[in-house]
Amino acid sequence: MTLDACAKALGIGHARNYQRYESGAHSPDAPIIQKIMRLTNGAVTPEDMHADRIDWLKANKPAVFEGVDAVQPIIEAAE
């Protein structure tokens, strides 16, 4: 499907908005995630979309992750 066809099938205004979801530049809301899962017959999962978003942020806004490695998981901290 083209970006335009995907955007129309999902009820998104413009192909560019869908492209931003696809690249990870933007995170879709839960209803759009559900529609993407249905449109792709489950081939694209919320985990896929989250991974795309993380990759995009690391490449384009690495400062977002400053200090992330210093955070201790709650379970480990409680032990």
Could you describe the 3D structure shown?
There is one protein chain. The chain has five helices and no strands. The protein has helices at residues 3-10, 15-23, 30-39, 46-60, 74-78. The model has no long low-confidence stretch (mean pLDDT 91). Helix 1 crosses helix 2 (15-23). The chain is mainly alpha-helical and 79 residues long. The chain is 59% helix and 0% strand. It starts with a helix and ends with a helix.
Short description:
The chain is mainly alpha-helical. The protein contains five helices and no strands.
CA(first)-CA(last) distance: 50 Å
By DSSP, the count of extended strands is: 0
Strand content: under 5%
Overall mean pLDDT? 91
Unreliably modeled segments: none
The proportion of residues forming helix, as a percent range, comes to 55-70%
**In DSSP terms, counting alpha (H) and pi (I) runs of 4 or more, how many helices?**
5
Sequence of secondary-structure elements: HHHHH
* Shape summary: elongated
Rg: 16 Å
Largest sheet: none
- Pairing-aware structural class of the strands and helices? mainly alpha
